[in-house]
Amino acid sequence: MEDKQCEGQVKGEKLSENIGLSDERCINTRKKLNCVDKSSHVTERKLKNTNSQSSSCDISGKTFSNKDGMLGHKHSHVDEKPYHCDICGKTFSQKGGMIVHTRSHTGEKPFSCDICGKSFSQKGGMLQHKRIHTGEKPYPCDVCGKTFSNKSGMLVHKRIHTGQKPYPCDVCGKTFVNKSSMLVHKRIHTGEKPYHCDICGVSFTQTGGLTSHRRVHTG
């Protein structure tokens, strides 16, 4: 009999604890909740658990590790850009893009190469730079097998095989495999010569011309 009374007392104490106030609060009212209230209120724990579940975009089917990532991605389909730079006003579909852009104004470069110390505004830029030190070239051309340290370099190279020249000169219409070549070409039309010899002052449209010219002075 005594054992049953003790058992009943323990159960009663546990029940009292369960219906007592918890450490959780409703995120809307900030009211401290008891166990009975929890089911009808949105708590931070519920919100965290909901947000941590994987979510899929109902337009493209792409999956994300959390709901926030999926919602940010969906802006790209509807051309919605709810995040704006408070310095220049430029808008972005995702908060991460806006944060990276803001660094162009502030000069912030939080990612440093642990080999030479050079700093970068984006982690991807730092990782790409490190391949100069390591010699890593993880992007191969699937036509000839030549490897590159970055994907964009590989894609530009592939145009040699495909003949694609997507950058036209808006003056004469001549096309080029990359934008930089097109811009160099346009200097023929504009007369721009941005590279100057620091000895005699003669100017050139390309760095190669300046380098060759300097040999006149250096022998």
TrEMBL record:
<keyword id="KW-0805">Transcription regulation</keyword>
<keyword id="KW-0804">Transcription</keyword>
<dbReference type="GO" id="GO:0008270">
    <property type="term" value="F:zinc ion binding"/>
</dbReference>
<keyword id="KW-0863">Zinc-finger</keyword>
<keyword id="KW-0479">Metal-binding</keyword>
<feature type="domain" description="C2H2-type">
    <location>
        <begin position="83"/>
        <end position="110"/>
    </location>
</feature>
<feature type="domain" description="C2H2-type">
    <location>
        <begin position="111"/>
        <end position="138"/>
    </location>
</feature>
<protein>
    <recommendedName>
        <fullName>C2H2-type domain-containing protein</fullName>
    </recommendedName>
</protein>
<keyword id="KW-0539">Nucleus</keyword>
<feature type="domain" description="C2H2-type">
    <location>
        <begin position="139"/>
        <end position="166"/>
    </location>
</feature>
<dbReference type="GO" id="GO:0000978">
    <property type="term" value="F:RNA polymerase II cis-regulatory region sequence-specific DNA binding"/>
</dbReference>
<dbReference type="InterPro" id="IPR050527">
    <property type="entry name" value="Snail/Krueppel_Znf"/>
</dbReference>
<keyword id="KW-0238">DNA-binding</keyword>
<feature type="domain" description="C2H2-type">
    <location>
        <begin position="167"/>
        <end position="194"/>
    </location>
</feature>
<dbReference type="GO" id="GO:0000981">
    <property type="term" value="F:DNA-binding transcription factor activity, RNA polymerase II-specific"/>
</dbReference>
<dbReference type="Pfam" id="PF00096">
    <property type="entry name" value="zf-C2H2"/>
</dbReference>
<feature type="domain" description="C2H2-type">
    <location>
        <begin position="195"/>
        <end position="219"/>
    </location>
</feature>
<keyword id="KW-0677">Repeat</keyword>
<dbReference type="InterPro" id="IPR036236">
    <property type="entry name" value="Znf_C2H2_sf"/>
</dbReference>
<comment type="similarity">
    <text>Belongs to the krueppel C2H2-type zinc-finger protein family.</text>
</comment>
<keyword id="KW-0862">Zinc</keyword>
<feature type="domain" description="C2H2-type">
    <location>
        <begin position="55"/>
        <end position="82"/>
    </location>
</feature>
<dbReference type="GO" id="GO:0005634">
    <property type="term" value="C:nucleus"/>
</dbReference>
<dbReference type="InterPro" id="IPR013087">
    <property type="entry name" value="Znf_C2H2_type"/>
</dbReference>
